[in-house]
Design brief:
With about 450 residues, the protein is an alpha+beta fold. Helix content is about 30%, strand content about 15%. The strands form 4 sheets. The chain has a 6-stranded mixed β-sheet with strand order 5-4-3-2-6-7, with helices on both faces.
């Protein structure tokens, strides 16, 4: 029998905070490059060309620890032992951020057309000349890595999402130029779907930052304040953003909107998210003390919408185990939270990394099994013209016994916090949380339906 949701009063647990963990060292980045070269060998590629710009940087950062703050960048893995990183004027001074470059294990060249308009252009070679020096020729087999790969039902099989001037130059030189972005981003075999202990420790740190911001905002909601005043409570610490953070006051405000000076009113809807690399924490509910503050048609919000959501998300968590096909979770949400009432359109959970959305194994008919090392976003988004929404959008990691042991050995405090959160979800919220699941957020599955009483939350 499915347990029913109820409201309880709690003091939010103090799981502690974390100092910024050490980022991966040159040895870890070298191991990632070796894995990329092994994938190249599996596909008989002679070269891998990895593109990055400010919005689409995650694959390059994963391989090198460098991500362009301006401009575009390009990484070339080819016959030479050391990869080449091509950067523009301003990114050249940022190269020491890469442990590989700092250890003289990464070459670089300046290509000034990557720079912003009207900056100096007279001190770099043509892109074609650089490619030729990297051994790209007619018989080369080039794999391009952007930020999307395409299935046959979406686009032509060899469609590439890199800028045309780069792809045109490659195809001028080589007959075989294909899209191999799936090497890094495919939910079944993508390299970035297997997070290392260092990745997980960093993502736990950013989840703490983001969830503490949301918690402070929840406890700071006041009738009559502006959304700017509420947003200031997030206390941005300076970590890179995974996406623009949002604050939508009122049911008619688009969900991706930011603060605009709106007045937050009792009886209106409210949602907010804070997103850093590897973390996106979101809550949605009502500016209210009780259901009597809500519009008349929505006054059964707790029992007929948000409570049902909480119940089904408990079932979702119970299935969140290594080996479960993603289609099983997709079917659960489709069956138990039907679209005509809950309006859930996107995937019932997805993978997160340095980019907010990598890919997802959870879609109708998916036979892709969940695997150890997946950093997942508990991102099941209801939407209703009557009830607005509700949310427990937090980060979790799936880890088998071996990965859990590695995390515990290298990052014992991080591991302890994750186990504390899991026990809280089980003991206080009454949820079924498999041992594979390591919660990252400091407000794990805490869902207050009424933001003027944030201590009143759902449990089972």
């Amino acid at each position: 029998m499915t347990p029913s949701a109820r409201l309880i009063e709690i003091d939010y647990p103090d799981f502690g905070t974390a100092a910024p963990p050490a980022r991966p060292d040159a040895n870890e980045y070298e191991s990632r490059l070796r894995a990329a070269r092994a994938a190249m060998d599996d596909r008989n590629l002679t070269h891998l060309v990895v593109y990055a710009d400010r919005e689409h940087f995650a694959n390059l950062a994963y391989l090198t620890g460098f991500e362009p703050r301006f401009e575009e960048s390009l990484l070339i893995l080819g016959p030479r032992d050391t990869a080449l990183l091509i950067v523009g004027n301003e990114c050249e001074g940022y190269l020491p951020i890469s442990p590989l470059w700092a250890a003289n294990k990464l070459r670089h060249e300046r290509f000034q057309p990557f720079s912003l308009l009207n900056q100096p252009r007279e001190h770099s070679r043509m892109l074609k000349a650089i490619f030729l020096d990297e051994g790209i020729k007619r018989q080369s087999k080039i794999g391009c890595v952007g930020w999307k790969y395409f299935t046959a039902s979406e686009h032509h099989a060899h469609a590439i999402d890199l800028p045309a001037y780069i792809v045109d130059t490659l195809r001028e030189l080589a007959e075989s130029v294909t899209n191999v972005t799936d090497i890094f981003m495919h939910p079944g075999h993508g390299l970035r779907t297997f997070c290392s202990p260092a990745d997980i420790a960093y993502f736990e740190y950013t989840n703490i930052l983001a969830s503490e911001s949301i918690k402070t905002m929840l406890f700071g909601v006041r009738d009559g304040m502006t959304d700017y005043e509420l947003g200031q409570l997030a206390a941005y610490p300076g970590e890179p953003l995974g996406c623009h953070w949002t604050l939508a006051a009122g049911q008619n405000t688009p969900g991706l909107a930011g603060p605009s000076g709106k007045i937050i009113r009792r009886g209106e809807a409210l949602s907010a998210n804070v997103c850093y690399w590897g973390a996106n924490i979101c809550r949605a509910g009502w500016v209210a003390d009780t259901e009597k503050d809500l519009p008349l048609a929505a006054q059964d919000y707790v029992e007929n919408f948000a409570g049902l959501y909480f119940q089904v998300m408990n079932e979702w968590f119970s299935l969140l185990t290594i080996g479960t096909p993603g289609g099983v979770l997709a079917r659960l949400i489709a069956d138990k939270l039907p679209y005509d009432k809950f309006g859930i359109f996107l995937n019932a959970g997805h993978l997160i990394h340095l980019d907010e959305w990598v890919s997802s194994p959870i879609f109708p008919g998916s036979d892709l099994p969940l695997h150890s090392g997946m950093a997942m976003q508990v991102d099941v988004i209801p939407s209703s013209p009557v009830y607005f929404s509700t949310r427990m959008e937090d980060g979790v990691v799936l880890a088998d016994a071996s990965l859990r042991e590695q995390i515990q050995t290298r990052y014992p405090d991080c591991y302890h916090r994750m186990q504390q959160r899991r026990r809280f979800m089980i003991d206080t919220l009454g949820m079924e949380v498999p041992e594979d699941v390591l919660p990252l957020s400091n407000i794990p599955a805490i869902v207050p339906p009424f933001f003027l009483v944030p201590n009143r939350v759902f449990a089972l």
